[in-house]
Every structure is written in structure tokens, then in C-alpha cells.
Amino acid sequence: MKKLLLIALMLSLVRICDAQVILQGDALKDSSRVKRATIVAGWVEHPDTVLMVLHKPVVCMPPYVFVSRRQQEKYTKLVRNVKKVWPYAKIIKRVYAELVDSIAKIPTEEEKKAYVKSQEKKLRAQFENELVNLTISQGRILIKLVDRETGSTTYEVLKELKGGFSAFIFQGIARLFGSNLKSEYDAMEEDKMIEDIIVRIENGQI
Fold first, then answer.
1. Which among 1, 37, 48, 147 could disulfide-bond with 185, CB atoms 3.0 to 4.6 Å apart, if both were Cys?
2. What are the residue boundaries of the structural domains of the chain, listed by start?
3. For residue 32, how far is the Cα from the chain centroid?
4. For the segment 10-46, what is each residue's pLDDT rounded down to a tens digit?
5. How far, in Å, CA of 178 to CA of 172, rounded?
6. Which whole-number Å values give the CA distances from 114 to 45, 103, 109, 146, 161, in the listed order?
7. What angle do CA 20, 26, 27 make, to 5 degrees?
8. pTM: predicted TM-score of the whole model, two decimal places
9. Long-range contacts made by residues 196-203, C-beta under 8 angstroms, separation at least 24?
């Protein structure tokens, strides 16, 4: 059995090495090839080139232990809801960073407002139909995840991009539906179960 495992490992390494192509010389001028390439560190130990690839840390987590069937059902529902909104939270993180960076380069307040408005129009066209179909529970989770991803509450994000009055109006509407745009993410206590789910999603466990 050990011999079979070693053979399987060697074959997998051969396939990995086979797939690796070192770009050099004129090949570096081919933008299509460079775009598909993965940049890794390495050094030459004649006659071999030793490559070093850094992988992101993988958190090993044991199966979640439920104290009751009710808790298991709650967890299952939460998994479904987090999976639904988690991609949107990551998109918001990226878009928010791009907006803040772009706005900082715009000289006048009028131009900034026009830019934000144009970007808002694009985002509405792309995501509005999907977001309006979120349930109230999913909306509340997304509000929390915005804080997790950006370091700012949804209220603060709106205030920065659209001004205090708009943030106040949206907060008022959210409160009518039992939500709070000022909700903060608490990975250690209140949102511990959500954090557990996100880590497992990132690890490919669920």
C-alpha cells in the first residue's frame, strides 16, 4: 500500500512539473502568456531550478457539534443565507475600495458626486434585480458582512459615498424592516456562527 501511495505521489508530481512552463526571453513579451502565468519565487541549484510557491493558510476545523436539532436547523439555514450573500460582500469590498481610490483623485465635489452617481447606475443595472430578491434575514447578514469586509458599517459606507442625508434616509427605511445599517460584525460573540461558516466556505468544506 505504501508503495502504491508513493507511485501515485510521484505521478502527480510529474503532472505538476509537466504543466509548468518557465517563461523567459521573447516569451515574456507575449502578454497573453504572461497574463495566464503564475509568478513564483525560485532559485537555481545547477542544473535544477527550485520553485517556491506560497499557499494561503488553511484552517483545519472539526465538524460542527450541534447541541440540539433546532440548532442544526438554524445552522443549515444560516449556511444557505451566508452562501447567498457572501459573494456580494466580497464584490462590495472591491467596489468600495475602487470608489474610494478614484474619488480621492477627483478635484471637485461636483465631479465626485457625478462619478458616484454614474457608478451607482452601473451597479444598479448589474445587481439590483438580484439584491431586491434577498430575504430580510439575508439582508441583515449582508449588512454585517459589509462591516467585516470593509471595516466600516453600511451606514458609514453610504455616508462617505452619498452623504449624511442619504445615509440617514436609508437607515430610516432599514429600521422600518427591522434592520440596522449601523450593525457591526462581531466574529467572537454574536456572529461567531457566521464566522465559522465563512471559514468553512473559504476552506471548501461546505
1. 147
2. 2-52, 69-203
3. 26
4. 433 333 344 455 555 565 556 555 555 556 666 677 7
5. 10
6. 57, 10, 9, 24, 11
7. 25
8. 0.68
9. 196/61, 196/64, 197/75, 197/78, 197/79, 197/82, 197/83, 198/82, 198/86, 199/59, 199/61, 200/61, 201/82, 201/83, 201/86, 203/58, 203/59, 203/61
